[in-house]
Amino acid sequence: MGKLIYSMIQSLDGYTKAADGTHGWGAPEDEELHGYINELSASVGTFLYGRRMYETMAYWETAHLHPGQPPVVLEWARLWQATEKVVYSRTLAEPSSARTRIEREFDPAAVRRLKDSSEQDLTIDGPELAGQAVKAGLVDEYHLIIAPVLVGGGTRFFPDGAHADLDLVEERGFANGVVVLRYSARR
């Protein structure tokens, strides 16, 4: 059985995107951090995305074609390309990447079955989609990648009304000021 992991880069004040829509402050440009994220993602067999997050992440389908990419970036592109992707969208006509299927509605029971039948972990990415999984009690681990910036408002990592009892699994700091906190949900 695979674990469902909610993992995103966020500001210190808990936002995945600032009120003006920017989120570039959260890119893991540090090679040590990027390598660590690659390690965390090695157990993942399926990414669950909302449309907007998928459109952002689809860059990785061709990232290896851009000259001068460091090895850690090329490794992430290889991992991303090899992983199954499920995109929840009512409007996306077709995927722009291989190993990708579109689902029109987020169905918690279907995600539960996917977790139960998976030999690898799954991630759910994007705060709106992940919020549905959090509220349905589907998330097994939370990976908070906290950037040393305050943005003052925007799209929050956790949805209103979220509740879960958590155990700290790991905490790790990086030279660029980013801190990663990994929690498992108590069942």
UniProtKB/TrEMBL annotation:
Pfam family, one: RibD_C
Residue ranges of every copy of the Bacterial bifunctional deaminase-reductase C-terminal domain listed in the record: 3-179
Any GO MF annotation of the entry: 5-amino-6-(5-phosphoribosylamino)uracil reductase activity
GO biological process, any: riboflavin biosynthetic process
Transmembrane segments: none
Protein name as annotated: Dihydrofolate reductase
Native species: Labedaea rhizosphaerae
